[in-house]
Fold DUF4189 domain-containing protein.
Amino acid sequence: MLKKLIATAAFAGASFAIMAPTASAAPAAPESNVSAAAAHFAGVYPNANAARKACNDGINQGRWRGCSYEFKQGQTLLWVV
């Protein structure tokens, strides 16, 4: 039983180590007034109003200082600094 737990944990750790770099890769930051080097991808929203609300909520909570938006196929991508 203990061997199975150790083997499972080792396999899970190896899988995470392999997948982590690809899972954390975000698409390139859009051209905007926010520095591309400092912008972080914050999510995809169904429309500009939802993205703007998320931006304002994050600023009010002190999670970021500013936002930029990218519009793709009817959805809005939110980038924050």
